[in-house]
Design a protein that fits this description.
Elements lengths: L18 H10 L1 E4 L5 H18 L11 H5 L1 E4 L1 H4 L1 H7 L2 H11 L3 E12 L6 E4 L12 E7 L11 E3 L15 H14 L3 E3 L8 E5 L4 E3 L8 E10 L10 H10 L16 E4 L1
Antiparallel strand pairs: 1-8, 2-3, 3-10, 3-11, 4-9, 5-8, 5-10, 6-7, 6-9
């Protein structure tokens, strides 16, 4: 266990991001950054994130009783609100600066975080677009996906349809068998290259655009695939039309008190990096 917030690594120092990585992200809509967090850093934060996940995941149904989405992972959102220790990780300036630099913007805010724990025997994550669910009127959204444990080739990391972000909003389908089939056909029709970054060490991270089509394999191993994600949105972005039930739910949950056309600046959307 950790010895309190003061004993946790601060994650505030700058990470040297190459121009090549920025160019790769902007062209393909995804990139893998190795060693974004050092092994000793991620080992410490893994403990506090795992403790928080366990506290809020006890109500999950047994794996065999869940639908396709439920079998994909245990999902616990906005842990930064529930744990001061996790808040230090989620609001880390190091990660926020990388997100801003990849997007090419002056600053970023948090949209929300998600712990995604794919259990042994957990199912695949169907093809989907994240921003389908987000009422954000901007293309400058990005998700950091960071494993808290080493991920083998067998266990699998995310697969991305390179350059699919250039299409923007493709489908209103939720994450489901239907989205996997429908978007899978679209990927074939458009001849998008499917790229996976393979095995990853704890503290490596992928970043992908909110419109990038992506999926993940199931977990055939006996180890839980522990991943922490943070979603960033460019500072100055506005709330989009609340035109679906999913976006209405997100607006109520992550943008409290805000309506269409308002700046994304609720109490749940603090600035984490500004040039």
């Amino acid at each position: 266990m950790n010895g309190g917030i003061s004993s946790l690594p601060d994650l505030e120092n700058e990470f040297p991001l190459s121009a090549q990585l920025v160019e790769e992200y902007q062209e393909k809509g995804h990139v893998c950054i190795r060693n974004l967090a050092a092994q000793e850093e991620i080992r410490t934060y893994r403990n506090v994130i795992k403790d928080a996940v366990q506290d809020y995941a006890k109500q999950a149904a047994p794996l065999e009783e869940r639908d396709t989405f439920g079998k994909a992972f245990l999902q616990v959102m906005n842990l930064w609100e529930k744990s001061k220790e996790v808040e230090k990780f989620v609001l880390a300036e190091r990660f926020g600066k990388v997100a801003a630099d990849l997007l090419g913007v002056e600053g970023v805010r948090i949209y929300h975080d998600q712990a995604l724990y794919k259990e042994p025997g957990g199912g695949h994550t169907p093809w989907h677009q994240d921003q389908t669910f987000w009422p954000l009127d901007t293309n400058h959204t990005i998700t950091m996906w960071m494993p808290l444990v080493d991920i083998s080739e067998e266990m699998g990391s995310l697969s991305f349809a390179s350059k699919s972000q250039l299409e923007g909003y493709v489908s209103k389908l939720g994450i489901s068998d239907d989205s996997h089939a429908t978007l899978g056909r679209r990927i074939e029709e458009k001849a998008y290259d499917i790229v996976t970054h393979g095995a990853m060490k704890a503290g490596d991270a992928t970043f992908h655009n909110g419109w990038t089509l992506h999926s993940a394999p199931g977990n055939p191993t006996d180890q839980t695939r522990e991943v922490m994600t943070v979603i960033y949105v460019a500072d100055g972005a506005q709330v989009s039309a609340i035109d679906t039930a999913a976006r209405k739910k997100d607006q109520q949950q992550w943008l409290p008190g805000l309506g269409e056309g308002d700046l994304v600046d609720s109490r749940l959307n603090p600035v984490v990096y500004q040039k």
